[in-house]
Amino acid sequence: MIDTYKTIEGPSEEILFKEKNSKFFGYAFPVQSEEEVKPILDQLKKTHYTARHWCYAYQIGTKTKNYRANDDGEPNNSAGMPIYGQIQSFDVTNVLVVVVRYFGGVKLGVGGLVTAYKTGAQMALEVADIVEKTIDVHFLIRFDYKNMNKVMRVIKEKNIHVVNQTLELDCLIEISCRLTQQEEIFNAFDQIFEVSIKEKDA
């Protein structure tokens, strides 16, 4: 089972690719959800308000991945899919790649556009800081105070990361572990009398 994935550490530097007087500006951004995409695009449209096209693709998710590719007025599949192809080629997820085009007066044809958008996306990802991260699973553990020592002993023995804890009438601790340890960690707590554990909804 694979429990790591590749993504980018932060936004890439702006890159510029020129083809027959057209200018293509490429960007890569880390994103965790689809809701983050629109504000980034809106900001780029303000920055490049005289551009003609703001084409993009993104891929989000680790265990299951969702993607979208947008040609933004360019011929069908001439921009968004070549950009998405580079996301696949670099094997990254939780990433948005945008290529902004200023039309230079010379038509490139579909083949020329595919190459230009692919190159813009490739250059943006080449200058991005690509990192490997672990796929983590989060659990919620609920128990009474009297069982605190038992729970904390398991957390210490297995070197488990505590994300959050709420200690009120009863205790609620959120922990995270790597995907490959999921079953082992669940069983360790599930076996303790009067302690409940469940996976936290993503």
Quick recap:
With 202 residues, this protein is α+β, with helices and mostly antiparallel strands. 29% of the residues lie in helices and 36% in strands. It contains 5 helices and 11 strands, in the order E-E-E-H-E-E-H-E-H-E-E-H-E-E-H-E.
Protein architecture, described:
- By secondary structure, this protein is α+β, with helices and mostly antiparallel strands.
- 29% of the residues lie in helices and 36% in strands.
- The protein contains five helices and eleven strands; from the N terminus they run βββαββαβαββαββαβ.
- The strands form three sheets. A five-stranded antiparallel β-sheet has the order 2-3-6-4-5, with helices on both faces. Strands 9-10-8-11 form a four-stranded antiparallel β-sheet, covered by helices on one side. A two-stranded antiparallel sheet has the order 1-7.
- A hairpin with a 5-residue loop joins strand 4 and strand 5.
- The protein is elongated, with a radius of gyration of 23 Å.
- The relative contact order is 0.18.
- The mean pLDDT is 93.
